[in-house]
Structures are given as structure tokens and as C-alpha cells.
Design a protein that fits this description.
Elements (H helix, E strand, L loop, with lengths): L13 H15 L4 E6 L9 E8 L7 E6 L14 H14 L7 E5 L9 E5 L18 H4 L2 H21 L16 H16 L7 H12 L9 E3 L8 E4 L2 E5 L6 E3 L1 H21 L11 H12 L6 H25 L16 H9 L5
Antiparallel strand pairs: 1-2, 2-3, 3-5, 4-5, 6-9, 7-8
Helix pairs in contact: 4-8, 5-9, 6-9, 6-10, 7-9, 9-10
Length: 364
């Protein structure tokens, strides 16, 4: 991880995007100009982000962020980028809860102006725990914080999940219902099976991922409970903090109705993913931060709901992340950044921990 090249995140020309954005903005707000257009270095590999300011006497927003669907010709990480779905989700969460969700302003469904659909929202200033190098590594603001400051951030972040799950009526998110039959959990897992089939179509499948799916069936909860609106990508790397307090909750493209534990398992495992990698590279990391037992206890105190079947849900999170990692690796191979090994399981950075979860030894 310390030496591997960072995968490319875009095939688009930032200068061309800036020019086209300025032209589009004038159609929505006559006389307005987009200035200071930048593409952040931390741009992800799914939807892309542009940051800009609006120059206008009375702009509805001045500091803006634009979320642009991935270039369909760029070997995308996900098969579909539904910007309408994301836009509607952020509006629902903003209207039905007190979560700090950036205010969305414009939705553009026509791919003509920028080459793909997009929406514009307010830009919130603050800092985000880094993914590269991970916040569990030495040399970043979160690692350098005191135990008390990290505990404050942890408590506030679990509070976001508790409030989301308790405050947003699931009926308001019916448009996010996943296709298929069965309850919300079955539909969620079915969607992941379909995603995996898309990832390996025409390529080498992953025996480990398929074994993990089988293990999920063996651990299936007897009572998944009533679904709630799940954030989907519930991790601190998708939160903007002012100091150690959340001021913006980002990245809603994976939102869907599901048991509460789907979000909780993702929060637990995505931290463990970074922590395990950090330890593997000889650093101590942050072993007392975002621990599973503390997350479960704090969530229960805030909501009255004691998380159940968390071995299932943390395995499910590791499995979902493995599918994404496999797609990212195949994308790197497509661009000539890596070679595909004989064993495709080794393309999954956390194949060791996923295997331990499948075998039931990870949490020992």
C-alpha cells in the first residue's frame, strides 16, 4: 500500500469541464460565472467532484460542490450512477432529519452540458479523515489528535447514524427500494450478488467472494428487523468535520432501505480495513478508535436498539468491500497499472481478513 500507484480517478480534462460548467451555469443563473473551478486531489473513483465559486450579485449558493456521474467510457467502478436518486436522497434526509446534509440546489439530468448527469450543492468547509494515506497512519490530523478528541469525533459520528435511522421515515425513502423479492436484507444481498456478477463478467471470478456469499447464507439472521434508511457508505471518510464535530455528511450513492446493522457493520469494518492494513505495514494505528464493542454500545444507548447478528453484518461489509476492491483492481489492469495474478483473490487487499471472517476466526 505504501508503494502501489494510486489508481487513476478520471479520464476527463479538468480545464474542459471548467469551461463547460461556466456555460451551463449561465443558463441556470443568468450573468453568473463559475470561478476557481478545481478537481480535488482526493476525488474518488465513482462519482467525480468539482469545486467552484459562483460570481453573481445574489447567488443562491456561493461556495459550491458539483457531483458528476462517472464517465461511462472510463471502466466505471459501479454499473449505474443515478444522480437523480442521490439528489432526492439528500433532499429527503435534509428535510426529515437534523443531519448536516449539504443543501442541494440544481439537478441536471441531461448529459449534454458536462458529458454526464450531475447536481450542485453547497460546499461546506472543514476537514475529512484521509483515505490515502489512511487516517490510521501517522502524520495526519486525526492520528495526531488526543484520545479525548477522537472519542468526541467517534461519539458524534455514531450519533449521525442513530439520528438518520430514527428520524427519517422509511416511507419517505421508498424510491430507494431495491429490486427483487423478499425483505429489505434479502434484496440488499441480491443486489450485491448482481454487482459481483457484473464485476466478473468475462473475467476470473473470486472463489473467496463466492465462499463469503455462502457463509452469509449460513449466518443469515432469523429476524433482520424492520428496515430503516441506510446511508450506505457510512464511514468517517465521508464526513466533513469542524474540529471534531460533523458539519457535512457526504456520498449517498449507496443509500437504501436495510436493517440498521448494515450501516453499523460498514462503519465497523471500514475502520478495521484501514487499521489492519496499518498494522500489516508495521505501525500501531488506532486500535482503540471505532472499536466494534464501543460502536454497538453507543448506538444502543442512543436508539434503544441493541445491534444483533453483527458477525453476519461485518462479514457482509467485508464482502461488499471486496467486490469493490476487485472491480478497482480490474479497472487498474484495464488501464495497465497492474497485472492480473493467477489467483484473483490476491487482488483484494483485505483477502486475509475476509478469509478469517469466512472461517469464523477474525473476531477471536
Amino acid at each position: 500500500m505504501a508503494t502501489a500507484p494510486r489508481p487513476r480517478t478520471s479520464t476527463r480534462d479538468p480545464e474542459e469541464l471548467a469551461h463547460r460548467l461556466t456555460g451551463w451555469l449561465g443558463t441556470r443563473l443568468p450573468g453568473a460565472k463559475a470561478v476557481g473551478v478545481t478537481v480535488p486531489a482526493s476525488n474518488g473513483m465513482s462519482s467525480e467532484t468539482l469545486l467552484f465559486d459562483i460570481e453573481h450579485p445574489e447567488p443562491p449558493l456561493r461556495a459550491c460542490a458539483l457531483r458528476l456521474a462517472a464517465d461511462p467510457a472510463a471502466y466505471t467502478v459501479f454499473p449505474v450512477y443515478d444522480m437523480v436518486r442521490q439528489y432526492r436522497t439528500m433532499r429527503v434526509v435534509g428535510e426529515c432529519s437534523d443531519l448536516p446534509v449539504p443543501r442541494v440546489r440544481w439537478l441536471e439530468e441531461d448529459p449534454g452540458p458536462l458529458g454526464a448527469p450531475f447536481f450542485v450543492m453547497e460546499r461546506v468547509e472543514g476537514r475529512v479523515p484521509p483515505d490515502v494515506m489512511p487516517y490510521t497512519y501517522e502524520g495526519n490530523w486525526l492520528h495526531a489528535a488526543s484520545d479525548a478528541e477522537r472519542e468526541r469525533l467517534e461519539a458524534a459520528t455514531i450519533g449521525l447514524l442513530a439520528r438518520l435511522h430514527d428520524q427519517v421515515p422509511v416511507k419517505e425513502a421508498e424510491f430507494l427500494t431495491l429490486p427483487g423479492e423478499g425483505d429489505a436484507l434479502r434484496r440488499h444481498v441480491t443486489a450485491q450478488r448482481a454487482y459481483y456478477a457484473w464485476v466478473v463478467d468475462g473475467l476470473a471470478p473470486s472463489p473467496l467472494i463466492e465462499e463469503a456469499f455462502d457463509r452469509l447464507e449460513a449466518l443469515w439472521p432469523t429476524d433482520p428487523g424492520m428496515p430503516v434508511l441506510n446511508w450506505g457508505d457510512a464511514r468517517i471518510g465521508n464526513v466533513v468535520y469542524d474540529g471534531f464535530d460533523p458539519v457535512a455528511v457526504l456520498d449517498w450513492e449507496m443509500a437504501a432501505p436495510a436493517p440498521r446493522e448494515v450501516d453499523l457493520g460498514w462503519t465497523v469494518y471500514l475502520h478495521r480495513f484501514f487499521q489492519d492494513l496499518t498494522v500489516a505495514f508495521g505501525q500501531r494505528g488506532l486500535p482503540d478508535f471505532l472499536r466494534r464493542d464501543r460502536i454497538e454500545t453507543r448506538y444502543a444507548e442512543l436508539t434503544g436498539h441493541t445491534p444483533r447478528d453483527m458477525d453476519f453484518y461485518t462479514l457482509y461489509a467485508a464482502l461488499r468491500h471486496a467486490i469493490v476492491m476487485l472491480r478497482v483492481a480490474y479497472r487498474q489492469a484495464h488501464f495497465g497499472e497492474v497485472a492480473v495474478p493467477a489467483d484473483p483473490d490476491t487482488l483484494i487487499l483485505h483477502h486475509g481478513s475476509l478469509r478469517a471472517m469466512v472461517q469464523g476466526s477474525y473476531w477471536d
